[in-house]
Amino acid sequence: MPEDQRPLPPDNEDEEANVPASVTFMEMMRQAARRAAPEPEPPPAPQEEAPPEPPAVPVLAAETPEELRRKHAAALETQRIQRVKRRRARRRRHTVGVIGGLLRSFIVVAVAAGLMATIFVWWTPMQFISAEVRSELGQVQSPREAPILPTTQPTPNWLRKIGVVSGHRGPELDPGAVCPDGLTEADINFNVAQLVVRELRGQGFSVDLLDEFDPRLENYQAAALVSIHANTCQDFGEVVSGYLVAAAAARVTARGDDDVLVDCLAQYYQQATGLTRHSGLTEDMTNYHTFREIHPLTPAVIIELGFMLADRNLLTQTPEVAAEGVANGVLCFLQPGQAPPLEATEAAP
Questions:
Q1: I want to staple 332 with a disulfide (CB 3.0 to 4.6 A). Which of 304, 321, 324, 339 is the partner?
Q2: What pLDDT digit, counting tens, does each position of 278-300 carry?
């Protein structure tokens, strides 16, 4: 076929003209993006880790001979101290062991002796011991009190305390019995009580002047206690005179001393004043509150000096006479050998 008649290849421009514009635009954008993107760097080659370096070994300085000698001496001293401690510990254990052994031996011997004595008493017939030996053993076993020897020196008076109660005196302002003219029992009692205190202190005694309800009376301890009162000022239509003296009726701990004190006071008060003792005691006297307050072993009495009407002159004009009788009665109780002598007449019952 002649060349001029062969078909011509299709024109590329016609093909490109047939491609849509959107496809061409997308291709152009991809090419532009490839040109703008940086070329990726090749991955780094792996690096081999270096082996760890061995720890540095400290270089010790060479010790001098002097340091070596000091260390050796210190080690020897430590060993010596340990040996001393061990020896002391062994000694303590040995001492405790010896004491424990002695105690055990003592207990064993005591128990054995007790058993032997018990067996001996149970199984030994009475005829084995003579009557003389049995009598001596009975005397040794029987309790005996040591004889009480009298002291060569008496107790000084200043060591013996006496309590004197001024009846109805105190912060309660209780006048007691009152006469029509205003004379009160409290005034009479206080005047006589002061004189009694002065008389007994003159003898060297330690004397307390106490009120009717004195706080010191609680469990009060003394060689003797006297409570001073006066009887009523009532007019009975006849002359009623005399004194009364009494101790506690219900107290038994000091009953013997109470009775002696009552007898002494009655005898010496009657001798000094000449008044007669009345026997009609009231419950206010025998159950007097002070008897219940003081110590059970304190001897105590209460005295009615006289009647404020019939015995007024004695109680108000010559109170020192009444005080002398009371003081001498206390001396009779405390110092029988030094009290003034009594007259031949005895106190009326």
A1: 339
A2: 888 889 999 999 999 999 999 99
- Output the six-digit token pair for 145: 């009190």
CATH code for the domain of 272: 3.40.630.40
Q: Which domain holds residue 120?
A: 68-131
d(CA 287, CA 283): 5
Amino acid in the structure at residue 14 = D
Percent of the chain as helix, strand, coil, to the nearest 5: 50, 10, 40
Contact 229, 189 (CB under 8 A): yes
Same domain, 224 and 298: yes
What CA–CA distance (Å, rounded) separates 294 from 220?
Answer: 4
Check residues 12 and 167 and name the one with the higher pLDDT.
167
Instruction: Check: CB of residue 222 under 8 Å from CB of residue 185.
Output: no
Specify whether the CB–CB gap between 224 and 334 falls below 8 A: yes
SS (H, E, C) 267-323: HHHHHHHCCCECCCCCHHHHCCHHHHHCCCCCCEEEEEEEECCCCHHHHHHCHHHHH
b/e for 64-75, b at 16 or more Cβ within 10 A?
Answer: eeeeeeeeeeee
